[in-house]
User: Which sequence fits this backbone?
């Protein structure tokens, strides 16, 4: 077949189909590259990729019907629209779950998953019903109203996810802003591409926009894993060191060092798996309270954690320590054994660097540990 002999409509069809085939294989490649990663956020990211693969497959079917390549184009066009609008609902649901995992891993409970899935289920059923029994002519008011009715819930989910990311980016410190920036861009690119796709039928706007931004999101997620502790999901020592290098001691801050009391005894008495659960619990407590206060936090190593306050005074630090200790008192009910921690802190100012203050906080911490081990 000579391309010069093809009409402009046939060339457009070929371009549209090839574009979706290429982006489909790119997403399959990303799925293959992330196949061995089992972090919760990566699992939901892979579900996003699966939804995109399904969507591009539906677009290939749609293009064959829209450009009259296959027989009975009306039937296949209806099937393709029904399939893709349903997948769009699943895609928006996976996106919102992915956002929730990034923002608050412990908050994504089974109950929340079910609640979030109800509007998605309604959206899918609505897509099937309207596409099956209501098929207005393209580019008419009735057609646009139908499309709006179908995509209203998916659009709302994408916007809610984007708004939550923007909110967390606004209130986070500089170390976390870069983490949320690309996440905040993704939904708005998807929405803009979706609108363009509806208005400019036949041009592969959505597949390229969604694939390129998803590749960027994947690369960013991989970078974040380098700075994330594999067990607890909070920042690791590498990130703490990076923060220390960029840290300015022109303003008064406090550094706190947390060490789990009698952690070896927990491992010896209950086993290392229970010891891991204890560390995860302590990390979740530190994360929750630190995010409330907008403090930087990370796992320094073993059973030691570091928190760095921002624009806080000593009373704020004491309040933080009290909240941590009060939350750890609840561990016996949740884990089946008690957990406590020793916390030392020291001020950082012009005359004292972060590393110097950390050394002094560490000294105070071990003074507390000596007291704790007497009982």
Assistant:
């Amino acid at each position: 077949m000579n391309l010069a002999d093809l009409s402009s409509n046939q060339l457009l069809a070929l371009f549209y189909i090839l574009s979706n085939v290429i982006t489909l294989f790119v997403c399959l490649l990303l799925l293959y590259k992330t196949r061995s990663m089992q972090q919760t956020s990566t699992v939901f990211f892979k579900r996003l990729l699966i939804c995109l693969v399904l969507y591009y497959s539906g677009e290939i079917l749609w293009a064959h019907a829209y450009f009259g390549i296959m027989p009975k184009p009306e039937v296949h066009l209806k099937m393709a629209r029904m399939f893709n609008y349903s997948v769009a609902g699943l895609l928006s649901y996976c996106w919102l779950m992915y956002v929730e995992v990034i923002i608050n891993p412990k908050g994504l409970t089974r109950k929340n998953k079910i609640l979030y899935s109800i509007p998605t289920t309604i959206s899918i059923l609505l897509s099937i019903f309207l596409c099956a029994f209501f098929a207005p002519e393209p580019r008419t008011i009735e057609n646009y109203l139908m499309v709006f009715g179908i995509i209203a819930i998916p659009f709302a989910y994408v916007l809610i996810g984007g708004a939550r990311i923007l909110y967390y980016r606004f209130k986070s410190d500089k170390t976390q802003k870069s983490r949320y920036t690309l996440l905040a861009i993704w939904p708005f690119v998807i929405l803009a591409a979706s609108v363009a796709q509806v208005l400019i039928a036949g041009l592969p706007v959505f597949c390229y926009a969604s694939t390129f931004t998803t590749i960027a999101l994947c690369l960013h997620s991989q970078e974040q894993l380098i700075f994330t502790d594999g067990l607890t999901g909070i920042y690791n020592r590498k990130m703490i060191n990076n923060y220390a290098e960029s840290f300015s001691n022109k303003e008064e801050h406090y550094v706190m060092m947390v060490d789990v009391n009698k952690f070896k005894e927990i491992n010896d008495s209950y086993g290392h798996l229970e010891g891991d659960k204890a560390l995860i619990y302590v990390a979740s407590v530190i994360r929750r309270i630190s995010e409330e206060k907008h403090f930087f936090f990370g796992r320094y190593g073993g059973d030691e954690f570091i928190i760095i306050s921002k624009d806080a005074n000593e009373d704020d630090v004491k309040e933080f320590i009290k909240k941590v200790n009060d939350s750890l008192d609840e561990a016996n009910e949740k884990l089946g054994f008690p957990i406590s921690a020793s916390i030392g802190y020291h001020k950082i100012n012009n005359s004292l660097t972060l590393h110097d203050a950390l050394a002094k906080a560490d000294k105070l911490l071990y003074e507390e540990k000596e007291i704790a081990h007497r009982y």
